[in-house]
Amino acid sequence: MFSKTLIVSPSGSFYGSEQVLYSHLDYTKKSYTVFVPFGSFFQKKLKRQHKHDVCEFSNIKLLYVKIFLKLLFDRYATLYINEGGHIKYAKLIAKLLPFVNVVVHIRLVEDTSSSRTEKLPKNLKLISISNYIQGLLLPEETSIKIVDPLDVTNVSVQRFKLSKEGIKIGIIGRVSLSKGLHNYEKLFNYYFSLPKVKTVQFVFFGDVIDKEKEVSLFFDKYSGLDFSQVEFKGFVEDQEKVFSSIDAVLHLNEKEPLGRIGLESWARGIPFLCFNAGGCAEINQTLEMKRFSIAFDTDWEVKVIDLISSLDDFSSSEQDAARLNLQSHFSIERYVKLLENQF
């Protein structure tokens, strides 16, 4: 017996929003009808759960025609869209079917623009993922904050110990302008200008969005032999392989909506270094790890390198405290309960 809720995942990749939805669908006691892009990586992962009715789509307009008919004739009560990229279709369906509960998760800064979220029908509600995103939404909009979860039950802590060979810093996520590319450029310009630079290696784990000219130039520059301390691994499916190979995670996007990678890092006992801004700062503050947040002001790149250089004083007690706070504030049980209350 399937729940009378239709779920749409606009992207078929397996980045933050898809990982959260996957955790939800894995943990929930309910079964859902879930629409995902045809032939996508996410579609294959969901089918392996053998738990939900996984439906494919390849044409977005035809997708919402099909959803409209299902909502109308099969009497589904709720349409839930896992991110705001399809909000125009959500608004249209909410207007055409005022008896349907439409829920849209707002996960990106660009999805908070007034052009996307103005004039919302009364039966359409928004869910934000952080105080930062909540603050960008217009006051008159109906929205509720539900912070993304992380299930730590199957995640083991690796005791922190820096190698004598140097510090390996992981930069996890798409290599793109939206992920703070200009800040990495500024950091590298400073760091590689220092004398006898030998101790830190920066490793990018994520797809290089080479259709962006600035990204292509950045990749061409730092993937060369002149910068052997920078490495691009591309997207790595096995997260344990990623985290077991690094000493800390660095995330230099001051406008990050939340920063799930911060949760993934702390769950494994790995320091998460970020700006004291956006959703990432909220993670470190909630976990009482504010000392790993860098003020986004003049000469911040100096502070980043200083913080990296002082990582050897990160203690096992700090590891344990971060994990306990993570379980308390970001549990999957809390998330599923709060989200399904909106259905």
Describe this structure in words.
The chain has helices spanning 16-27, 41-49, 60-73, 87-96, 114-117, 131-136, 181-191, 213-222, 239-243, 260-267, 278-286, 300-309, 316-329, 332-342, and strands at 5-8, 33-37, 53-57, 78-81, 101-106, 124-128, 143-145, 167-172, 200-205, 230-232, 248-251, 272-275, 293-294. It is an alpha/beta fold. It folds into 2 domains: 5-145, Rossmann fold, CATH 3.40.50; 167-328, Glycogen Phosphorylase B (Rossmann fold), CATH 3.40.50.2000. The protein has a 7-stranded parallel sheet, with helices on both faces. Helix 2 links the parallel strand 2 (33-37) and strand 3. Helix 7 crosses helix 12.
Give a concise summary.
This protein is an alpha/beta fold and 343 residues long. Helix content is 39%, strand content 17%. The protein has helices at residues 16-27, 41-49, 60-73, 87-96, 114-117, 131-136, 181-191, 213-222, 239-243, 260-267, 278-286, 300-309, 316-329, 332-342, and strands at 5-8, 33-37, 53-57, 78-81, 101-106, 124-128, 143-145, 167-172, 200-205, 230-232, 248-251, 272-275, 293-294.
Average pLDDT score: 92
Counted by DSSP, the helix tally is 14
The helix content, as a percent range, equals 25-40%
Q: What strand line-up does the widest sheet have?
A: 3-2-1-4-5-6-7
Gap from first CA to last CA: 16 Å
Task: Name the CATH architecture of the largest domain.
Answer: 3-Layer(aba) Sandwich
Cα shape: globular
Q: Describe the largest sheet.
A: 7 strands, parallel
